[in-house]
Design a protein that fits this description.
251 residues; mainly alpha; Serine Threonine Protein Phosphatase 5, Tetratricopeptide repeat; 2 domains; 9 helices; Zinc_finger_MYND_domain
Amino acid sequence: MCHFFLCSCHDHQLADKESIHGHICDKLAILRQPAKFLPSEELRQKWKKQMRDLNLQVIDTAATRARHLLFQGLHEKAVPAALVAVRFCLQQHGPSSIELVPAYLCLGEACIGLRKLGKAEEYLSQANWIAITDPNCPSSIMYNLHRNLGLLYAAKGDYSEALRHFADDIYHASEEFGTNSLKTSGGHYHMANVFFRQSKMDIAMSIYRQVTKIWHKYLSEIATNKMKQASQPQAITITVSKDEQTPGLSE
């Protein structure tokens, strides 16, 4: 039985096991071993690099798992995975590192889905503080930050603030991925939802049509490529056994 759980509470251990534990247990066992006495500086540096690489693997695995669970709508199960990513990011990079932001965003999104808006605001505020204090924070992070802040304020009923964040979301996503990207269309979609809730139907339907155009173009390109592949003649390979070979063909 594995003893490397993140919490002693039985219910939390069960959630931890279903969320992330099985994906990182072997790495945790190595990371939590007592430090060995190593006689040379070369061996000590090699050991430090191995531990650092394991830490980074845990962070990547936990963050990927959290995003996967959020995509499935399993918000409660995503929380332990996101917490692991935050914990190991703090250990590896420090409290002001931009690497922490994606993990905080996962936690914020999960809490919004669970209607724990106070906790969501806490995590997203931490992510926002790190992002605005880093002048090199990339648009690939900024768009996702503003999207989650927009979802938070929309859930709280503060529609004007939600629209402001969705506008920033669209700006950064367009800068990073292009105006017709599927990722950019997500900001348009959430903005349209806010106008819909405000009963501003003309504006909402106009933005929904923009989202539809982006998806139609994307899906049409996929369908066209599939039809082109299907229309191309497939090469037929005939395998002839040694006993069936026609005399002269093997000469």
